[in-house]
Design goal:
With about 130 residues, the chain is α/β, with parallel strands linked by helices. Helix content is about 35%, strand content about 20%. The longest helix is centred in the N-terminal third of the chain and has 11 residues. It is globular, with a radius of gyration of 15 Å.
């Protein structure tokens, strides 16, 4: 199985100047745990996750003032659609994160989450009960 078989091709993207609240609202509406942050001045995509939002809340930061660009993981680890899922899951495990931005060249084409991997492995009977 490959990343393309499990990834979500619908990607929530925000800019670095969106507020954390704006990103949180969009993530909640779409029921996703991460937003890809596209900054034309950056070398690649960044990612803002639920964990980043939680850390800002825990620190008492103002979600209406804090910008995504100040809280994202810059230069997010990216996968290509043809990576196998073992490689993707190993990258997630070793990196300590739950989402991979999927790029085809410089274009963001999807997001792969741990939940996506578990879903496809479960559907294919690769996980035992």
């Amino acid at each position: 199985m490959h990343v393309r078989d499990a990834m979500s091709p619908t990607v929530l993207t925000v800019g670095p100047t969106h507020t954390l609240r704006q990103a949180a609202v969009l993530m909640a509406e779409r029921k996703v745990g991460a937003a890809v942050v596209l900054d034309p001045d950056a070398d690649g995509p960044g990612i803002l996750t639920e964990r980043d939002l939680l850390e800002a809340v825990a620190k008492g930061q103002d979600l209406d003032a804090e910008k995504c660009g100040e809280h994202l993981t810059p230069d997010a680890v990216t996968a290509t659609p043809d990576w196998d899922l073992d490689r993707a899951s190993t990258a997630m495990l070793h990196g300590g994160f739950r989402h991979l931005v999927v790029c085809d060249g410089s274009e963001v084409v999807g997001v792969l989450s741990v939940r996506d991997i578990v879903r496809v492995w479960s559907e294919r009977g690769q996980l035992s009960a």
